[in-house]
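User: Is it possible to get a 3D structure for a protein together with its bound compound? The compound here is tetrahydrodeoxyuridine. I've pasted both below.
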Amino acid sequence: MNSKYNFECQIYNSLDELDSEIQELINSAKRQLKRAYAPYSNFYVGASLLLDNGNIYHGCNQENASYPLCMCAERVALYGAGASESEFTIKALAITASYPTKPLKEVCMPCGACRQVIQEFEMRQNSKISLYLTSENNEIVAIQGIEVLLPHSFNKDLLL
Ligand code: THU
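Assistant: Yes, that's possible. Here is the predicted structure of the complex:
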């Protein structure tokens, strides 16, 4: 257990400490920040996911004047992959954020709804997704599987 976060994770202080494939995934999530549409919150989120076939899918948050319709970056990326490929396994998901109003000192955690959706994708593919969380500091928090962030979950095993 790490001292800063009360869940199982690895903390990196530079991209150089990670494999080049993951470095590129995190950089592509950062590039997505420019495409985020967040005129209401001014909170910009980028997400990129890597499939085991090497394909990468991207997402960024998409807001709406009718606030409940806003869609998170993670789900834009996940649903994009689901709509684009029939059989696939997600290896890794990088999430980053920028909040010019009050620059972020901590990594961006996925919201509860996105945790639930990430879990559904893990159950579909029967394997864990490695999460790489970053923001505006240099820290990268790596988490092996969504159960770390969503323990005791509601999931499909509870349904008929
Ligand atoms: N947001 C994400 O894109 N992902 C998250 O996991 C947390 C929140 C977005 C939604 C909204 O556009 C903005 O951040 C502020 O909540």
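Strands lie at 10-12, 44-51, 56-60, 90-98, 130-133, 140-144. The domain at 10-158 is CATH 3.40.140.10 (Cytidine Deaminase; domain 2).
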